[in-house]
Each structure stands twice: as C-alpha cells, then as structure tokens.
Amino acid sequence: MSRQKAAGELRSARWFAPDDLRSFGHRSRMMQLGYGEADFHGKPVIGILNTWSELNTCHAHFRERAKDVARGVLQAGGLPVEMPSLSVDESFTKPTSMLYRNMLAMETEEMIRSHPLDGVVLMGGCDKTTPGLVMGAISAGIPMIYLPAGPMLRGNYAGRILGSGSDAWKYWDERRAGNITDQEWIGLQGGIARSAGVCMTMGTASTMTAIADAMGITLPGASSIPAVDANHQRMGADCGRRIVEMVWEDLTPDRIVTEAAVRNAAVVAMATGCSTNAVVHLIAMARRAGIDLTLDDMDALGRTTPLIANVRPSGKDYLMEDFYYAGGLRALMKRIEDRLDLSCMTVTGQTMGENLEGAAVYNDDVIRPLSNPVYREGSLAVLKGNLCPDGAVIKPAACDPRFHLHEGPALVFDSYPEMKKAVDDPDLDVTPDTVMVLRNAGPQGGPGFPEWGMLPIPKALIRQGHRDMLRISDARMSGTSYGACILHVAPESHVGGPLALLRNGDIVRLDLPARRLDMLVDEAELARRRAAWTPPQPRFERGYGWMFLQHVTQADQGCDFDFLQTDFGRPAGEPDI
Ligand code: FES
Ligand code: MG
C-alpha cells in the first residue's frame, strides 16, 4: 500500500480535528454513539451506503452483508458507519423505479458531501440502484467501492429451471393460451425467486453490476458471486478492508472511471448480452465522469463485439449461477482481453490486466470461445429514421430474425390501459405482420420511462401459435424481456417526437442491417399532422414528479437531470463551514 495521505489530511479531520466549538459538537456526538476519540479521530471514516429495505427483496441479505463490510473496515483500521440509502426496488415500485434512479443519485451525492466521510462502500444491485449510487458517488468524488448484491439462485419448479422475468413472460403466454393449470401457475410463482439476490438472468441488474465490475469499481469478479454464497460474505469484508486502503492511497473515482474504463464496460456489456437499459444508465454514469458516450458509440461496439455469455435472455441455456461456476466475469473478460484496455486503474490499486491474471473459463458452453459465440455481433443495435431521429434501440439477439427486415401496418395505442384491453380481445384486427405501437410511455409520458416496451402479443395471435411480433414504443423494457421490441424512441411522443404523428394503418419499415426505422408517410402529410398536434397535459403538477418533468433529459442523453450533469454550473465543492 502506498500511503499518500497523513491522518491530518483525512477529509473527516475537517469535522473532528479543529479546536473550535463546531468540532467540539461533532466529537461529542461521536461520543454519544459510544465511541472514544481513538475510534474515530485520525481514522478513515467509511460510509456504508446500504439500500436495504423490507420491500427490496433483492437486497434481503444487506443487513447482514453490511456487518461483513464493517468487520473489514474495522480490521483495516477504519471506522464503519452504516447509512441507509433510498432503496429503489424493481419489484414493487409504481409506475417505475426509473422515476427514482436520479433521486437515489442525488441523495448519494449529497449525503456523501455533507458528512464526515473519507470513503464509501456502495451497496446496491437491484436494477436502478447500481447507476443511482454510482452516478452520485462519481459526482461526490471521494474513494468508493461498489458492492454488488449478487444474483439469486436459479429458479426451480417441478424439475424445471426457471429464469427471472423471462420465464414469467413465457409461462404467462402459455397460461393465456390455456396450456397451464392453476396449480402449475402457483408452483411457478413459488419457484421463480427462491433466495436473496438480484434477478439471475442477464437482466438489467446483472448487466449493470457487470458494467460496474468491468469499469473497475468493484473488487474483481465481485458481480458474479451469488448473493447467498459464502464467497459473497468474504467479498463484503474484502470491500471493507480495501476501501480503508483506498482512502490512504487517495484513489478517487476520477482515476478509475476514465474514458477507457467506460469503453471497457460497454464492450463487456455487449459480450454479456446486455440489457437495453444498460445503454441509458451507462451514458448517464459516463456523463457524470465528464465522458460523452453516445448511442452511436454503443452501436459501433455492438457491431463488432460477439455475444459470448450464454446466459438468458440473449443466450439460450444458462443463468447467472452457472455463469459464476464457469468462471464469472473475470473469465469472460479474460476471453476478450485483446478488446479491452488493460491499463485501466481499478479499486484494487492494480490495473485491469493485473486483476485478470489467472482468470480462466471452466465451461465453454456457458462462456463461449470467440470462435463459437452465441451471436456474432450485436447484443444491441441503435436505429435512426423518421420515427426516431435521436435514436431507438433493439436487441437483435433476442428477436426472431424474420423481423430484421420488416414492413407492416401500424396498430397504435396511446396508453397502456387502452393497449391492455385490446390485446385481450380475441377479435382484434391484427396479423403477424402488424407493427404494434405504444406511445406516451417515455421519460415524460410514462411518466418516468416505465418498462412497458415488451408489449404483450395479442391473444388473437397467441391462439394462432405466434409468440413474437414487431413492437415499437418510447418505453424501456425489462432486461429479462425478449422479442422484436424497438425501445427508447427519442424524442418521445409526449414531447412531440414523430412517434406522436403515427396513425393506424401507416406502414412502418424496419431495416435492421441498415439501422433504419421509418414510417412510410410523406413529409407534407407529416407536416400537416405536426401542425395539428397538441401537447398532452404534464403527468405531474407538484412534488418530485414535477421536478423530474422539468429536468429529465431524453433517453439518448441518459435521462439524468440536466442540473446534475457535470458541465452544469460551478462544481459544488466541499462544505466550507
Ligand atoms: Fe431486483 Fe430484478 S427485481 S433485480
Ligand atoms: Mg429489471
């Protein structure tokens, strides 16, 4: 350990060291907690930002895990302080947890800045908690380690392995087709989520924690360890020990989250099969570090990076538990190391290349060799065209190839309830070529950019045996979803994006190889429709929702608040009294 800092230079010393009335107050309050001066004075104070709650099922193990972190901090000579943080959960939050990602980011940044902390361990994992915590901590700028919650165990019912999300959608379609009994349905319900931890498909949670790992802000390979594995406890204690050293080394996030590290993260995201949500979050995190990652950058990486993690939903066969046993993220990164910048600094104080030394793949069917990828290119593709001038995304690997070049008539819905009603109508006028469209589901329209983008297949088609169709929306979709779904249409319809002008029966054309999405409607007609368009009522007129609508950016910009972006205004700096 290269010790670069003296005790008097600790950030917390500004609270605890001066011989003045204010510091007397701070010291006396630490003593109120039962600490003597030797416990806190001159020691790195480590905030353990814990997004535990009884309604965050994915973080059910975090109360215990925070103790493991604290044990490590104490062993290394620091003082651990656990701080409850906004527990943005995917399981219950309505209309969508995405509405609160930025709230967690704000809370994280402000709680760090305003308290006597020298370093932080960020405990998250359920989808939005990773970007929320990381965005805030990058802006706050003190040493940090991200502790990923880890995936839950494989789901299991009646001899069948079940994957989070993906199998819920799959068996729901079977139930609607009349192929599943009530008893089986209840059995699936009890088997699909059977331990603490995040969704164990390569959904948003596992994609985002892999991104954090690849960016160098977790301990190496930490993102792959199942939540309830004893290795996860030991990893927690390791985080505690390491963050204390990082404080002495003054290893701040700006030295780790560089342009090259963000690019590594994007490449790894593509190689894992990458939830579409990763694009929005990665852009937002990068921008906090002052890096202008664009949708076009993501598309370029998507075209050249093979998908080698055979993990559902993009892969066919396996789940995160299998991925861990096959060597986990370090093994995957080792396999694509010539596509990565191995000189990037990481939280270990060593480079990414050093962290990957000795990593090996133990099962070539789970982590495929480059000569036998799951998909040669394109975990993710970015589309442009007159329906989405600022971009839209699709996951080619998760959709039926017959839709890659497609033309069909639009069937447009203005709201989720309207669409839900229609899809259950057995007489709905729909063919396998129909392009189903949902609008008013973006950052402003949803509101909050909900995961409605895997529009349900109409019952009329399900009964004919169809399980996929081309769908378009300005919504997101769950990372565990699949199908021919075009998402994140920007600008969204609620703010007058061209999706607002589409009408039933208009022909929509997708040309995936050319990355184009267009409506075949002439410009004069579109101009007429544009002139007749009136903006809808804002979704919120008070409170946090109102603030969200005033400041959220569009999907292609990462949906951060404009005023939280790094180039907005003078840096906040340290509190001066
Ligand atoms: Fe928490 Fe999926 S619900 S990660
Ligand atoms: Mg999800």
UniProtKB/TrEMBL annotation:
InterPro entries, per database record: Dihydro-acid_dehy_C, DiOHA_6PGluconate_deHydtase_CS, ILV_EDD_C, ILV_EDD_N, IlvD/EDD_N, Sugar_Degrad_Dehydratases
Gene3D superfamilies named among the record's database cross-references: IlvD/EDD C-terminal domain-like
Occurrences of domain Dihydroxy-acid/6-phosphogluconate dehydratase C-terminal (ranges): 365-559
Keywords: Iron, Iron-sulfur, Lyase, Metal-binding
GO terms assigned for molecular function: dihydroxy-acid dehydratase activity
Enzyme Commission number(s) of this protein: 4.2.1.9
Pfam families attached to this UniProt entry: ILV_EDD_C, ILVD_EDD_N
Dihydroxy-acid/6-phosphogluconate dehydratase N-terminal domain residues: 43-355
Keyword NADP: no
Enzyme type, top EC level: lyase
NCBIfam families: PRK06131.1, PRK13016.1, PRK13017.1
Record family assignment: Belongs to the IlvD/Edd family.
Name of this protein: L-arabinonate dehydratase
Native species: Paracoccus simplex
